[in-house]
Design goal:
Elements: E1 3-6, H1 17-27, H2 39-47, H3 53-60, H4 69-80, H5 91-103, E2 106-114, H6 115-125, E3 129-133, E4 135-137, E5 143-147, H7 155-168, E6 176-179, H8 185-190, E7 193-197, H9 201-209, E8 215-217
Parallel strand pairs: 1-2, 1-6, 2-3, 6-7, 7-8
Antiparallel strand pairs: 4-5
Helix pairs in contact: 1-4, 4-6
Length: 222
């Protein structure tokens, strides 16, 4: 069956998963407003495709360093439910996942968001394959503050996908990829069918400059 690669932020999710996380951690008084000061600059560089993604990952995991695994899981579960993240999933994206699951397709979520936030979302959606920012955990399951592998971002999304394809014996033939930003360009080109969901102007400009054309989708309705 074909593989389908889904970006998270701006594609499946109407918004940014890190924003939902930060708002929830503020509400729970895990962080204060001082923590949020650099986020606007990180976001600006991300949208332009100029962010050094490892810098952001190291920043966003700081509140979890040394925190018990149980407390971290409780906070993330709260972010998904009372924090509103799951409610902000785009209806069209959820429908596309369900449609492909019914056909038996191999579904991937491919995102630079931290693994401990994305894996519960994937589990909720019934998605088996996840490529997310891999964090290092100690023997007690606590975040150490270090990255444990390649963060799926820009061309690194393709590298992480290829690792899973090879490991699981999955073919890229007739595959589809769904993304919204210029950081998804390489993934959209790697799949046989690249589809732009609420695409950013930079993504469309890059596609035009390189002679690529992606189907454009609106997922705000199922």
């Amino acid at each position: 069956m074909p593989a389908a690669y889904f970006d998270m932020d701006g594609t499946l999710l109407k918004g940014d998963s890190n924003d939902f996380l930060v708002r929830y951690l503020l509400k729970e008084q895990v962080i204060d407003q001082n923590f949020t000061a650099p986020i606007a600059d990180f976001h600006h560089r991300y949208l332009k495709g100029e962010l050094a993604i490892e810098d952001f990952v190291v920043f966003i995991i700081k509140p979890f360093i040394g925190m018990s695994a149980q407390r971290r899981k409780e906070l993330i579960a709260g972010c998904l439910t009372s924090g509103g993240l799951l409610a902000a999933m785009r209806p069209g994206g959820l429908a596309e996942i369900k449609r492909r699951q019914a056909l038996g397709d191999d579904i991937f979520i491919v995102t630079s968001t931290i693994d401990c936030l994305i894996e519960p979302i994937a589990a909720h959606l019934g998605v088996k394959y996840v490529a997310a920012a891999p964090l290092e955990y100690d023997a007690e399951g606590k975040v150490t503050g270090r990255i444990a592998g390649l963060v799926p971002y820009q061309g690194q999304k393709v590298t992480r996908i290829q690792e899973i394809l090879q490991r699981e014996g999955i073919s890229n033939a007739d595959s589809a990829a769904f993304g919204d930003s210029v950081n998804d360009f390489e993934m959209l080109c790697f799949a046989e069918h690249g589809k732009a969901v609420h695409p950013s102007p930079l993504l469309l400009d890059k596609a035009k400059a390189q002679g690529r054309s992606f189907e454009i989708l609106n997922w705000d309705q199922a």
